[in-house]
Amino acid sequence: MLLNPVLAFHVRRDHSEGMKVLHSCQSLSRTFGGVFEAVRQLVAEQARLEWRPEIRVAGTLDEFTETDRPLWQGCEVCSYPVLGPRAIGWSLSLSRLYREFSPDVVQVHGLWMYYSILNERYCRRKRVPYLVSPHGMLDSWALRNSSLKKSIARMLFEDQHLRNAGCLHALCTEEAEAIRRLGFQNPICVVPNGVVLPESNAAVPLPSPWSGLVPSGSPILLFLGRLHPKKGVDNLIEAWSMLRNVSKTCERAEWRLVLAGWGEPSYVDKLKAKVRHLHLERDVFFVGPLFGEAKNAAFHHAKAFVLPSYSEGLPMAVLEAWSHQLPVLMTPACNLSVGFEWNAAIRLGTEVSELVGPLTDFLRLTDLDQQAIGVRGFDLVVARFTWQRIARDLGRVYDWIAKETTQPTDLLFSN
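Request: output the structure for the sequence above.
Response:
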């Protein structure tokens, strides 16, 4: 039974002062998708907390690590080379980092790789408490994807790693319930991802990433994220083609769909082939991955945001869209039911037939009604999803699993 997840917290300085916190990740670059954004924003905010922890972030070295290193905003990040298959991520350097840094608490982001094995062994031997954040990797859709590999990993090391954690970290109540259904009895803290609010006095952003591709003045429905089968983009393209037959009262001809993201080249080629097959070359546009100011420009110039996903932990892109006051169209699998409760999002299904109707209804809304949805999303982000609150809440969890404070039961499932 989930205890009340919403109440005020009190800032503590005495217990956490000087705590050494290690964040262990699969990657320190864009290859880790939304988890990369979540972790780097979390550690940036933790570095500004009153209790001033000493923080290290460790992740595998890949082709984008050095390019994306400046995005960590001065946080000390340690990239380690991988020996053997990248899917395993085995590294001697990571073992050395654990020994040299000697953390007081570890937060592990993600599953299924060597760092799970190393973390469990080191922390058990040195009696170091740790927190595991699966980031949606234990929900049913994710487990069915590459199910044989994940079943073997669970049997060999991941279940033991999860069972021995001082606490498991869920991004939402739906994720916590999915973890419980797998039989894990650990306490579970429910702390969401957050978002950095755009500066109200920020300079005018760059031109849109689709400038010169899309007819000037076209309203843009934006998808931004990893191009992966679980995101539902394939069905979105098909549904978009069917909207050409919708009554002219929704003025559908003015809208364009922009797909911003990266993915396996074979899958991206498949999506582009579908666009050509459906003769949507003037309706659907691929603009590649966007980061930093280019991403902010995309949110600024778009008119709405869409995520028709089959599976998510808690999608950063939705929070970012709300922070830019964009109306959001998403599935319940995005695990942000509070968005529907606040009337800040339009509910989509995952099948083509379940996309066409809600898309049509949204496009038929007046500009003022569409904008009102986005304003409610912004209000929701301010109320629930600021990084300052999230960093402090996780700091309370660190205190507790290090046996220095009482259990923060307002954030946890009962034991």
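The first helix runs from residue 33 to 46.
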